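Internal ticket - ligand job 427, protoporphyrin IX containing FE:
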Amino acid sequence: MNDPVGTAPCPPPTAVCPVHEGAVRLGGPEFRRTPAELYRSLRRRHGPVAPVLLDGDVPAWLVLGYAEVAHVAAHDELFGRDSRRWNQWSAVPADWPLLSFVGHQPSEVFTEGTEHQVRGEVVIAALEAVDQFELAHWCRRIAEGLINSFAGSGQAELMSAYTHPLPMRAAVQLCGMTEGGAVAGELVRDLRISLDAAGDDDPAAAYARVQERIRRLVEDKRRRPGPDVTSRMLTHPAGLTDEEAVQDLITVIAAAQQLTADWIGNTLRLLLTDDAFALNVSGGRLSVGQALNEVLWLDTPVQTVSGRRALRDTTLGGRRIRAGDCVVLGLAAANTDPRIWPEGHDGRDGSARAENAAHLSFGNGEHRCPYPAPLLAEVIARTAVETLLERLPDVVLAVEPEELTWWPSVWMRGLTSLPVRFTPVVR
Ligand code: HEM
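stdout (structure tokens):
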């Protein structure tokens, strides 16, 4: 095991590493419920960079400070994205539950330098050509259709009936898939299994099904290109191979679906559990866009980014980081860093943050969420929330707020379910 603070040699991987005494396990029910509590206590105890243990007690650094997260993400000459650089692979079992997230994939996310610039440019060019008005129009239609399917019953479980299928159908449409709803449903399920390793399902098998489906899409678009993201990526002068295109499309679809779904869900939760906030939105003092922004500050979908690996020995937040150490970006922790909110960030009326988009929820530096993806995500999320509130104006939570539960993920923050009631709509 590597010695991340550079003192005595560490014992073999199975033993507890003394330099990580005080390291806290990242995960568990408490962390899932209130991650902000753990961030606060880690900050008090360790400052802006804390030693943590990932699943299976594999050591890593969690960066909690705003300035430190921004620094790591902006300096790819110091902190690389290729996870094969990690000095802990010998401590990771073959069936490690976080493997599907941390293990190297041949997608642009794990590339560095010129290769990343070229692959990133292909994605950006393909997304830039998306017409945002047309996207809002599709999303409105998708939202109406989904709401119609449950509006008459007076109740719904919104995560499965609305927040997940809506961005997936939008993503499927953006990428030029013609199969529609059933395919979108299977993709939602398989992506969730492959990213979260939750439950009894096999993440590797689920990921293989996702790959197979996207491979068929790429073959189809090579033969019959159309006005869609997939075709634009395949015809870009950079000349992606089929396999590169498959990997980068999976990144685009997974981000567009999972992260936007959790953004919608966390925003609906805010509006359904926080009366003051909801009143400000329904009374026109705050917009849905401002509610979405509030969630990016306080309850962001990407809590942590699995990482960067130090390219050489360096220091960060007063810690000595060794070459190959895993540095996890604590985006959610950084957003609530008391050094940027010295007056506190608990007043939940949203007014202080309403117009402030300096959060790190879309990352920073070369690997940040590529422009214009955040804009497209916002079009999808805003349309979803606005349409639901318009169609079901008296919607309320059907359980107590504390009964809501979160996916068991250290990386993402999303609800497992969001049961609601409302006056049935007779058509
Ligand atoms: C239309 C929706 C979206 C698309 C197409 C999209 C696409 C992408 C892509 C392709 C990347 C990889 C960038 C790279 O490594 O070069 C990325 C990164 C990222 N995305 Fe998005 N994204 C979307 C929505 C979101 C949402 C809603 C969030 C969270 C609020 C988000 C947060 C992030 C973050 C934090 C990263 C950076 C990860 C890192 O630092 O390594 N994205 N996104």
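Auto-summary: Residues 73, 108-109, 120, 123, 251-252, 255-256, 259-260, 263, 296, 300-302, 305, 331, 361-363, 367-370, 373, 376-377 surround protoporphyrin IX containing FE (CB under 6 Å). Confidence is low (pLDDT under 50) at residues 1-16.
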